[in-house]
Amino acid sequence: MDKFLIKGPVQLKGEVYISGSKNSALPILFASLLTTELIEIKNIPKIKDVDITIKLLLNLGVTIKRGKSLIIKANNLNSHCILSKKLIKSIRASIWLLSTLLVRFKKIKMYLPGGCSIGKRPIDLHIKNLKKLGAKINIKNDFIIASINNQFKGTHIFIKKSSVGATINSILAAVYAKNITIIENAAKEPEIQDLIKFLNIIGANIKVEGTNKIIITGIKKLSGGVYTIMSDRIETGTFLIAAAISKGKIICKNTNPKYLNTLLKKLMYMGAIIKIGKNWCSLDMTNKRPKAVNIITGPYPNFPTDIQPQFTLLNCIALGKSIVTETIFENRFIYIYELIKMGANLFIKNNQVFCKGVNILYGTKIQATDLRAAISLVLAGCIAKGITIISDINHIDRGYENIENKLINLGAKIIRIKN
Ligand code: EPZ
User: Tens digit of pLDDT for each residue in 178-198?
Assistant: First the structure.
């Protein structure tokens, strides 16, 4: 795994162009298995999780032309292909092969998925919903063995706990299901809305009622089409915080700030001047130190768990005390011990981190453990005094396109040491 060598402190300021959303690209790429017609998907980020997804699709016999956009045709799949354990286990998103390949092959045997080590990541809600839609599913020795009797059957689903992944698997299974499927208490993340928009453009019949009810009328055949995925709201929030921790000023372009209301409000409480436009947003700390503020993560539209590590860093150097409460993943504080090595004044109690803002962090040797922890530690290295060496930095390549150049353009002093 590569390392980053970072020299601080620097002030991060300037302009950044936000890439396409990882968590929108991944479900849409797996959803492309549902049609045999040609589709073109634009604004796909060049990140490792997308590379792995493309390899899985190619494994299955999908033809993919990768240029400025992705041209995909899944008309000639190989139902006997052995899906690579390494690829399946390297991303959580591979779980969406379950619904899509049941639709295409009527049966599947695949390894249990992987994903960041931020929690147990069970799939009980996925299994429960797909069984309700008519699938027979067993989990045996690290494998999911599943089949359907020709077609999923429309039904009424209530997802007892907000789950992005389980909501997506239920939608993908229901697109061709017999009759109507109603999903209640569906997750409302913008990336799910992006998937629904894509599916409807290629001929699905999906309606969103109120905020968390999805009605899917089964159709016979999807067509082809062209779709541009949304920008990455988590990357946007990450760069706003990059400016805030260094008392800097930033404008994020090619992004829709309406998906970040909760974060923007918190940043304003801290003293940031926030401006927003149709496809941009800016933050200016006016060279002032931010004031500490409490956050509680939760399903959209609450504070996004994927921005929790970055915001905790902000509280580490803010004025005053604060509490960060993580309600989604049970193991998303591993990076805290690395920040403490840098001089942060933090302690963990159950699912909360108690922060007392310090004036300065010090560069040292630290280790990245997952995607969002990695970016938080990189930002810590940018503002710490001295040299920070972060090992296992490849975690960051899973979800941030061209990250070191984007940060260098904002004033960061980073070099990647290839391992
Ligand atoms: C998606 O993960 C995202 N990943 C995560 O982003 C994001 O943090 C998460 O949604 C929450 O917003 C992708 O989209 C690829 P969940 P997912 O199902 O679908 C529990 C990032 O950094 N649960 O909404 O795995 C689960 O353990 C990544 O970009 C069950 O108990 O999340 C968690 O506590 C990290 N049973 C909670 O629900 C299940 O069957 C929410 O998980 C499924 C989930």
Answer: 999 999 999 999 999 999 999
Cβ atoms of residues 66 and 54 within 8 Å:
yes
Q: What is the whole-number distance in angstroms between the Cα of residue 163 and the centre of ligand 1?
A: 6
Cα(20)–Cα(417) distance, integer angstroms? 26
Q: Catalytic site residues? A: 116
Report the relative pairing of strands 107-111 and 143-147 from DSSP bridges: antiparallel
Query: Which three-class secondary structure string do you get for 87-122?
Result: HHHHCCHHHHHHHHHHHHHCEEEEECCCCCCCCCCC
pLDDT tens for residues 284-305? 999 999 999 999 999 999 999 9
* 164 alpha carbon – ligand 1 mean position (Å): 6
CA dihedral over 401, 186, 116, 93, signed as positive or negative: negative
Whose alpha carbon is nearest atom 21 of ligand 1? 306
Spacing of C-alpha 275 from chain mean position: 25
Q: Is the CB of 196 under 6 A from ligand 1?
A: no
